[in-house]
Amino acid sequence: MIVFFRALSGTMDVGSRKLLLLILLLNITGVQAQHSVTLSSQSLCAVTGSTVKIPCTFTPGHSSVTQREWYRVQSSEGEPRDLSKDPQYSGRVSVRTVTSDCELTVRNVRASDSGVYNFRFKTRSNDWISAPSGVHLTVTDLKVTVSDSESYKVLRCNTTCPYNPTYVWYRNGLFKVHQDRGKLYVNSGEPGSYSCAVRGHEELRSPAVCLFDEKSCWSVTYSTQNICSLIGSSVDIHSYYTFPNRYKVTEVFWFIKEQTGVEPVDVREDEEYQGRVQYTQISQNNCRLRITNLRERDAQTYRFRFYTDDPTGEYTGDPGVSLSVTDLKVTVSDWSEQYMNLICITTCTLSNNPTYIWYKNGQRVSECKSASCSVAAVGGAVSYSCAVEGHDSLLSPPVYSPKNTSAVVLSSGDTVEGDSVTLSCSSDANPPVLTYSWFKQRAAADTLLTTGQNYSISNISSQHSGLYYCTAHNQLGQHNSTPTLLDVLYSPKNTRAVVLSSGDTVEGGSVTLSCSSDANPPVLTYSWFKQRAAPDTLLTTGQNYSISNISSQHSGLYYCTAHNRLGQHNSTPTLLDVKVEVWKLYALWGAAALVPALLLSLLTAVLCIKRKRGAERDTDIQSVPKPGDDTHTALNLKNTSPDYDTLQNVQDSASDTYTTLNPTAMSSDYDTLRGVAPRLSEEKYSRTAE
């Protein structure tokens, strides 16, 4: 940019150069102003063993941050070292990473932690950016000094901090007084052990000094009588013990059970606490018990005991510290269609009035920081959980709207018409489901059937078959189950037989009869019958019955029977009407008229022939008639006799019997007529002539 300015300045007048320089300076200033680090304190003083928080904010501008870190400013040249990677600070430092917040927390500070600390960050377009100057941290020990003044003693609480804090004084471990100045005047009427602390860090006390009477200097006190901590977290229990200055402590331990005449067991040797207990000597008179990964059964009363080099010098602090262990639980206190109020509850009051953290579907809800959180009601799936600041990973079990909702048919086997059946709904919800609702899927809008976890149907029918689903509701929302099929089984019904034809059924054609039926399970077999006078007989099996080259004989009433494993049902008979073609009908009618006529003619001819034969036989057998007797004109009706009467006088001769027949000499049946006929004719004509 400077080269660019020089190149342009050679062609500009003085006024233009000044204007260009001003623009460049403004641009540079603007770029720098977009990236900054702000440390609200320039110096801090902390007591050994305390926790220090150094407030910090930064502005990355429109650039994305690629790296950020806290470091300790060194007097010598060299690249600063990230505190989170420094072994001296391992497990003791943490940095907030919420948006532009970069607050540093250092726990259990030591005298060696004194120094200057700063924060820096890097973007893609810039090098490291840090605050102009860091924060100077001083870590100090507390010490009580004693001076005599006539009948009383003057106690001073000394620190190396540059400011004058408010001090807290203790006698035999118990609170005595607050003092703005680090002086305390004690007369001989108040013997005992005295120690001091800085207000706000009361658990970090100075070593005690014994005044006036050694017997009054033996004591054990605790930072608190009751502690409430979260399951899974860690807890620190402090004991403050005093003794005459001329003795030395040889042993300290914590225990939870004591029996008369039996030495109590150190919690470090208890199997229940293996790997979870740690003692730390914070100061000469302060022993801290730390229990990690708290369990519900860790809720006990803990007491401290110490031994000195005096054979009788032991002391136990009673009554001890009562530890309560709790988990977090979210309850819904109020709800409506617009909002709901959530409360993060515990079984005991958490120590130190913590800040609460709320999560919605796993994402932090920034506007809620207390034990109560009011949120808008939503219709979809949602879950909420809470935690305590500093224990972000120890979340409460979530509360959530119903999920995994399921509808099932409670039946040990098939559901058959006439049975009773129950459908049951289940769902995973916290808080538990308030109401269940039942619906049946329909082409139109689904309508509510009933409410309740179970839906029972008695005397069930095929109309109840279909898809059913349930809806589970709680304060946070609702969820529908996947539809489940209610399959009602029944024997065939509505069985129907029809003739599959587009017109009349005519002789010589083909026709198919079809059977249909409503059944569940489906029809296994169809059977076909034709109604007859005699018992009906099975024609065939199958849904269709086909007839080819049909004739009028096939006309009649047909019916089918549908079968499944639950029963059978007959159709109403259907008529098969076979029509005859017109020309065939006429021919049939003609044949019907002709046959009787032919039969009548044939019968007449037969009768005539018979009669004629009878007459001829009479002529052959009788004697030759007299002239005039053979003609009809000579007939005398009065003298006539019935046919064959003339045969009575004819006698068989031996020549006429069959016993004398010679087959070789036999002639045909009518050969005799040849000789007779001419004679008859001649006689006839002769008589006529006469």
From TrEMBL:
Keyword match Membrane: yes
Signal peptide start-end: 1-33
Segments for region (Disordered): 618-648
SUPFAM superfamilies for the chain: Immunoglobulin
Domain Ig-like: 132-198, 319-396, 402-486, 492-576
Protein keywords: Membrane, Receptor, Signal, Transmembrane, Transmembrane helix
Cross-referenced SMART domains: IG, IGc2
Membrane-spanning ranges: 586-609
Polar residues composition-biased segments: 633-648
InterPro entries in alphabetical order: Ig-like_dom, Ig-like_dom_sf, Ig-like_fold, Ig_sub, Ig_sub2, Ig_V-set
Keyword field contains Transmembrane: yes
PANTHER family per record: B-CELL RECEPTOR CD22-RELATED, VASCULAR CELL ADHESION MOLECULE 1
Protein name: B-cell receptor CD22 isoform X3
Species this chain originates from: Ictalurus punctatus
Gene symbol of the encoding locus: LOC124626415
